[in-house]
């Protein structure tokens, strides 16, 4: 583990941590909350590795004050959380559910009372099941419903939320939820999932307008990015790399920044109506960047249904997810965004950066996680290097505050700065929590 001093970051740099509603809240029927696609998916046999659900998760719904106290002790300036759409609108349309909004009202006030900026994500994959039954993101109408939901939330919280994030990782929701079927709602459409991309982006643009009408706070979207590392040097390998880059990185960035859709596999313009691209390109104030690792790519075999083959990157340390730890990939990504989009690129905040390890309390109940400290140290230095090279990065959020319910992996993967005993809900700050507090936030 490095002992070198952490370089200083610009004044006003936003230090934070992130979570999401279904992964931590629990209380899935409290105050009239309706079912989401993840409730349905998690209760479907064989979908979740350990057979668990998010019914209780970290019980944050009842323990939010305890968790905000952890944020205050950590010293972060911002907390990125998500709002559960079915808690606000149980069926995804109609009037707001007052009890659901009351919870987020209490959470926001608790954060502000401890000097922590609320950063609210409107959609972190928990679509109301009733909307899925009507076609979900394959249905253009869902984009309009999303804007109405954004209006309801902003009408209640718009005076206090300090940064809005419309969508979290629309690429992941499209690819894993609708392309490969390993996330909710479980569709296996491969490249026929393009309408999900377009309707999410259309919903984003419509939500930007709704938020602007209710709030003066800045607006962002949080995209997942993965730089391509070619594992071959042929023209076919380069073509495969371009195809993957278009799908993972540019599909959800080019249209946001006024370039329209790139050419790519399955990108069907038939679902794009006149005026849609103008709506999608509504100006945003911040681009959220979620980064975990690069992707190794080479040309696919001739009989493959995909135009590329994903190849494991060798020679790097690996997380419990078996993801390679490549801090320089974050620097490369930030430089690529600047060089690719130029003046169209708004300021960047790294809205997720983190790692899963098999963290186990010792005999005294303490949790030492040196691998996570090394991971965060390397990635923060990569951010600082990008800033030194002229990239406008204004914030960094660790994923995650708490160990949580990790989607299809259930409770088998731990990302938190704080260990959670799921049987007792006891929170234990790990050594990485103290490191982030004492070495980075309060050096």
Describe the secondary-structure layout.
Blueprint: E1 14-18, H1 21-24, H2 37-42, H3 60-74, E2 78-82, H4 85-88, H5 98-113, E3 117-123, H6 129-133, H7 141-157, E4 163-168, H8 170-179, H9 194-214, E5 219-225, E6 228-230, H10 235-250, H11 276-280, E7 286-291, E8 295-298, E9 309-311, H12 327-341, E10 348-352, H13 370-388, E11 393-399, E12 418-421, E13 426-429, H14 431-441
Parallel strand pairs: 1-2, 1-11, 2-3, 3-4, 4-5, 5-7, 6-8, 7-10, 10-11
Antiparallel strand pairs: 8-9, 12-13
Helix pairs in contact: 3-5, 7-9, 8-9, 12-13, 13-14
Low-confidence stretches: none
Q: How many domains comprise the coordinates?
A: 1
Instruction: State the name of the first-level CATH class.
Output: Alpha Beta
Shape annotation: globular
If helices are DSSP runs of H or I spanning 4 or more residues, what is the number of helices?
14
Q: Compute the CA-based radius of gyration.
A: 21 Å
SSE string, helices as H and strands as E: EHHHEHHEHHEHHEEHHEEEHEHEEEH
In the CATH hierarchy, the architecture is Alpha-Beta Barrel
Order the strands across the largest sheet as they lie in space. 1-2-3-4-5-7-10-11
Look at the helices and sheets and give the structural class. alpha/beta
Task: Give the distance, in angstroms, between the N- and C-terminal Cα atoms.
Answer: 17 Å
Largest sheet: 8 strands, parallel, barrel
CATH topology heading: TIM Barrel
Q: Residue share in helices? A: 25-40%
Strand content: 5-15%
The fourth-level CATH homologous superfamily is Glycosidases
């Amino acid at each position: 583990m490095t002992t070198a001093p952490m370089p200083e970051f610009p004044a006003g740099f936003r230090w934070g941590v992130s979570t999401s509603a279904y992964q931590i809240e629990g209380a899935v029927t409290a105050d009239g909350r309706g079912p989401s696609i993840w409730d349905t998916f998690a209760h479907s046999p064989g979908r979740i590795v350990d057979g668990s659900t998010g019914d209780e998760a970290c019980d944050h719904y009842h323990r939010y004050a305890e968790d905000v106290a952890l944020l205050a002790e950590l010293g972060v300036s911002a907390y990125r959380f998500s709002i559960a759409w079915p808690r606000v609108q149980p069926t995804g349309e109609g009037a707001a559910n007052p009890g659901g909004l009351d919870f987020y009202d209490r959470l926001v006030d608790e954060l502000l009372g401890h000097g922590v900026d609320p950063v609210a994500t409107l959609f972190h994959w928990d679509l109301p099941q009733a909307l899925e039954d009507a076609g979900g993101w394959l249905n253009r109408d869902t984009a309009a419903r999303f804007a109405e939901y954004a209006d309801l939330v902003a009408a209640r919280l718009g005076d206090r939320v300090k940064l809005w994030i419309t969508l979290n990782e629309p690429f992941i929701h499209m690819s894993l939820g609708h392309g490969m079927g390993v996330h909710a709602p479980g569709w296996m459409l491969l490249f026929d999932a393009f309408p999900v991309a377009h309707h999410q982006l259309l919903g984003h643009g419509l939500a930007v307008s709704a938020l602007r009408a209710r709030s003066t706070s800045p607006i962002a979207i949080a995209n997942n990015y993965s730089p391509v590392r070619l594992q071959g040097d042929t023209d076919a390998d380069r073509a495969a790399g371009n195809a993957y880059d278009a799908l993972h990185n540019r599909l959800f960035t080019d249209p946001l920044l006024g370039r329209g859709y790139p050419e790519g596999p399955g990108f069907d313009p038939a679902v794009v109506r006149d005026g849609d691209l103008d709506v999608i390109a509504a100006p945003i104030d911040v681009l959220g960047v979620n980064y975990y690792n690069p992707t190794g790519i080479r040309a696919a075999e001739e009989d493959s249904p995909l135009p590329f083959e994903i190849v494991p990157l060798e020679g790097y340390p690996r997380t419990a997810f078996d993801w390679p730890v490549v801090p320089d990939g974050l620097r490369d990504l930030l430089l690529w965004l600047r060089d690719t989009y130029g003046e169209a690129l708004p300021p960047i905040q790294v809205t997720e950066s983190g790692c899963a390890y098999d963290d186990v309390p010792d005999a005294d109940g303490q949790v030492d996680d040196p691998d996570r400290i090394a991971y965060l140290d390397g990635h923060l230095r990569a951010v600082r290097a990008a800033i030194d090279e002229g990239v406008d990065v204004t914030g960094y959020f660790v994923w995650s505050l708490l160990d949580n319910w990790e989607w299809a992996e259930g409770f088998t993967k731990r990302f938190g700065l704080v260990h959670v005993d799921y049987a007792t809900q006891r929170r234990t700050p790990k050594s990485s929590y103290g490191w982030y507090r004492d070495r980075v936030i309060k050096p």
